[in-house]
Amino acid sequence: MKKTGFPHLVTKQLGMGLVEILVGLVIGLIGVLVIFQTMAVWGERTATTVSGSDSRTSGAVGMHYLEQDLAQGGLGFGRINSPGRQFEPGCNVNVPNGITPEGGTFRLAAVDINDGASGVPDTVTVLYAGSSDANLNFSDVALFKPVSGKYYSSQGRALLKSEWVVLGRQGGICELRKVESGDAANAGKNTLNQIEFSPAPTVTSGNLLYLGGQPQRATWSILNGALLRTESRFTTTISPISDGVVNMQAQYILANGDWQESVPTTDEWSQVRAIKVALLVRSKQFEKTNVTTVAPVWHSWDNANQIEVVVPFVMADPGDGTEWERYRYEVFERTVPLRNLIWGAQP
Q1: What b/e string do you get for 49-61 counting C-beta neighbours within 10 Å, with b at 16 or more?
Q2: What is the pTM for the complete model shown?
Q3: Other C-beta atoms lying within 10 Å of the C-beta of residue 65
Q4: Residue 204 CA neighbour count, 13 Å, CB half
Q5: Which of 73, 10, 162 is nearest to 340 (CA)?
Q6: What is the pLDDT at residue 347?
Q7: Is the pLDDT of residue 165 over 70?
Q8: Which long-range contacts (CB under 8 A, 24 or more apart) does 145-150 make?
């Protein structure tokens, strides 16, 4: 008997076709593009954040060390035009050839601002006495006079060989000299109240300022986007302090409340009480679009109207040819009292 039933069903096993493969590739490429776009945006945001943090750190470090130097300004001479003293504030100190690496002249001032023309960075030079003896108390201005030969009598401590002094007499004539004598058996000291110079100074009597064995006359400047501290008067040292600093503006603050960038007159030097300084720091991150649409500002003072005013920095494009608007900026400002001048002005 013939058996009956359902016919045998044959199912074909078909593989992935070209269409499916292309669809999968498109979906994969879209996913890869989204991932890389997300990573690119994340990278830009991270670079901006890190660069901004670096700028804040660089500016804070630079301002910290500059502020420390400014606070020392005038140590050892303070206010030098009190009754009985023969120095004039801001007098030009003559430096005989061979006395220092730089020679020439320099201004006898706690802080000397060289105003940059048309908004270019200022330079700030700070002068103060120094010594390896942390317990040394710098004495007041002393008197000196010729004794015999190369020796001069002075009030105060016995000076050491290779210590620095400024000699001055009426008329604003000042001279920097280095002590050339000293008894090796007595820790290099001169006989008390006796000093020897070689050759003999041109200023032969008057007042004497003691600057110690390690005085500093440091010039703070901006060069190639970095804040530099250069000591070239008593030693030869160039110290990069902070990177990314592109501008520095400074002003004198006088006792009468006026602020000025110009060099004080003889009468005004005795009125200088503080220094206002502003640093402009530029981020290293170059942005694809303009992120700084107006120039950053710093704060000054309108002497005529007695009000605070904002002053835009004069902006300049980086040396690589990019535009300054494509970078972010931080402004750091400090007002630093010149305590040695303030204390020296007390009756």
Answers
A1: eebbebbeebbee
A2: 0.82
A3: 16
A4: 8
A5: 73
A6: 37
A7: yes
A8: 145/204, 145/205, 146/204, 146/205, 147/194, 150/180, 150/181, 150/196, 150/197, 150/198, 150/200
